[in-house]
Write a structure and sequence with these properties.
Blueprint: E1 3-13, H1 15-18, H2 25-30, E2 46-50, E3 59-63, H3 73-79, E4 81-89, E5 106-108, E6 111-118, H4 127-131, H5 135-139, H6 146-159, H7 164-178, E7 183-189, E8 194-198, E9 204-207, E10 213-216, E11 227-228, E12 233-238, E13 241-246
Antiparallel strand pairs: 1-4, 1-10, 2-3, 2-4, 5-6, 6-7, 7-8, 8-12, 9-10, 9-11, 12-13
The structure holds glutamine.
Glutamine is lined by residues 1-2, 39, 90-93, 96, 102, 115-118, 145-147.
Length: 252
Amino acid sequence: MCRHLAYLGPPIPLADLLFTPAHGLARQSWAPRDMRGGGTINADGFGVAWFTGKEQTPIRYRRSLPLWTDAALPALAAATRSGAVLAAVRSATVGMPVTETAAAPFAEGPWLFSHNGRIAGWPDSVTGLAAALPVRDLVTLDAPTDSALLWALVRARLRAGEKPDTALGGVVAAVAAAAPGSRLNLLFTDGESIAATTCGHALSYRSAGDAGVTVASEALDDDPGWTPVPDHSMLVATPTAVTVAALEGVPT
Ligand code: GLN
């Protein structure tokens, strides 16, 4: 069920997240270790977005193909350095289209977002929540998928001035209430901090002081510095500090 990661810290090659580690995102695309909740491999597209340090808006590269089939990506990832990255590989939920725009990261300005999971009872369970969004947001969804709607819901709260963790927590609580049994691991960065929820899927982080912080569905290597995040948590991270708290308003 999709794998995602975010990194903040000193600039590193994208390859250090995707290809170099023994269990980097490339390996997680074809040999994930923890696909609780369904799926086997993550072959229905991928995306990487990275801040350049010069621009407020990150560069985003998404494809609808398996990550390992992109022949240009290894060289691109080796040559591109960034201090703020969000990347994901996708396993499309049955019934949802495999198309480039359905792959995370979803983006607006400096905001980057990914969802690992599924909305139970899609789409009927959440039409009420969708109806509260501006019509313009609905007719311009990235794709007709649960993840794209979750991004529209989060984005509406961010535009209204909510902090990222408040926005993510509010959306998880609302969707969990409307669609019980949903799996809602959300991941967000604006290049300054990371916010992430666990609700039905795995997540770990490694905070290495001057070496920055990485948050990922699965540890990228066997470094004992990786810490699993309990289910039903809210994680907030900056390059030098990580907090993990219980997710409010979500039945366990
Ligand atoms: N339901 C989402 C999609 O189809 C995410 C799927 C997943 O986490 N595997 O895009």
